[in-house]
Design a protein that fits this description.
Distance between the termini: 26 Å
Structural class: alpha/beta
Strand order of the largest sheet: 1-2-3
Pfam families: CoA_transf_3 (PF02515)
CATH topology of the largest domain: Rossmann fold
Order of helices and strands: EHEHHEHHEEHHHHEHHEEHH
Number of strands: 8
Keywords: Transferase
Mean pLDDT: 95
Helix content: 25-40%
CATH class of the largest domain: Alpha Beta
InterPro entries: CoA-transferase_III_domain, CoA-Trfase_fam_III, CoA-Trfase_III_dom3_sf, CoA-Trfase_III_dom_1_sf
Family: Belongs to the CoA-transferase III family.
Strand content: 5-15%
């Protein structure tokens, strides 16, 4: 069972974990909330953007000299869902050994803290504040950021001295490799503004596609900054089967994003198109809840449910 109500709010219905566990000790019960079942914020309503703000993500996202911004998708909601699915699978393995279910307490706030990753480690070890927002740049590697081209933007990663040398050659500036200001990553970091400005002056003379052609097969890390439409039409995305077409009963052919999981034996697929409102109500009541047809008809007539 998975629920996302404020803690203790399901007790009055007898649907809290302890009540249901008494009926089925094997139950795996996952509670997803903004701030968890315990702690001073546990009764707060939790929304992705609020947790992004409260738990550090918004502070480190955005332009270097700009205000904090939220991530373009509800990333904390998504990571919490991923952590929850992993937790449920782990609980299933545990139940296979012990025969007992358990309560899984998942909080958006916890998951956001966990995904601060190396930035959290740096702060914990140093005891100092983080270095703030860096836009597309990296705080300790230069050059490693997005640069403007003639028609859009391109990410370039000269992550070490060898890759920086390749970049210099491809930009037509081999002399930079021996320039004392840029001869090592530490000197490049110290002279970040100068070097990045010099690179920008060159990248904006060609289109992104032209630069991709120049960088191709060089070993340099680079990537076009694509919008969502370009991403969904990207040849690699299509080759990986990430966009699939299904037939919808009302809408006709419909393209959907596919599962990212690839197995050697099991083949995940989109089993059905998005359901219309109430499409599976009768099926769920009849097959899963085992409610008799006559009772279902009474519910329909009373306006409690709809569906075919």
């Amino acid at each position: 069972m998975v629920e996302n109500y404020i803690p203790d709010s399901l007790k009055k219905y007898g649907l809290d974990y302890n009540s249901i566990r008494a009926l089925n000790p094997r139950l795996i019960y996952a509670s997803i909330t903004g701030y968890g079942q315990t702690g001073p914020y546990s009764k707060r309503a939790g929304y992705d953007v609020m947790v992004e703000a409260e738990m550090g993500l918004m502070h480190i996202t955005g332009a270097r000299d700009g205000p904090p911004v939220k991530v373009g998708v509800a990333v904390t909601d998504l990571t919490t869902g991923l952590y929850t699915s992993n937790a449920i699978m782990a609980a299933l393995l545990s139940r296979a050994k012990s025969g007992r279910g358990q309560h899984i307490d998942m909080a958006l706030s916890d998951c956001q803290v966990a995904t601060l990753s190396n930035l959290a480690s740096s702060v914990l070890i140093s005891g100092e504040k983080d270095s703030g927002r860096w836009g597309t740049a990296h705080p300790s590697i230069v050059p490693y950021r997005g640069f403007r081209t003639k028609d859009s933007d391109i990410m370039i990663g000269g992550g070490n001295d060898r890759l920086f040398g390749i970049l210099c050659d491809k930009l037509g500036r081999p002399g930079w490799k021996n320039d004392p200001r840029f001869i090592s990553n530490s000197t490049r970091v110290r002279n970040r503004d100068t070097l990045e400005g010099m690179i920008q002056n060159i990248t904006k003379t060609k289109t992104t596609r032209e630069w991709e052609s120049i960088f191709d097969e060089s070993g340099l890390a680079y990537a076009a900054v694509n919008d969502v439409k370009a991403t969904l039409e990207h040849p690699h995305v299509l080759a990986r089967g990430m966009v699939q077409e299904v037939e919808h009963g009302l809408c006709g052919p419909m393209k959907l994003v596919n599962s990212p999981m690839k197995f050697s034996e099991t083949k995940p697929s989109i089993r059905s198109p998005p359901p219309t409102l109430g499409e599976h109500t009768i099926e769920v009541l009849h097959d899963m809840a085992q409610i008799e047809d006559v009772e279902i008809e009474k519910l329909k007539k009373a306006g409690v449910i709809s569906g075919n």
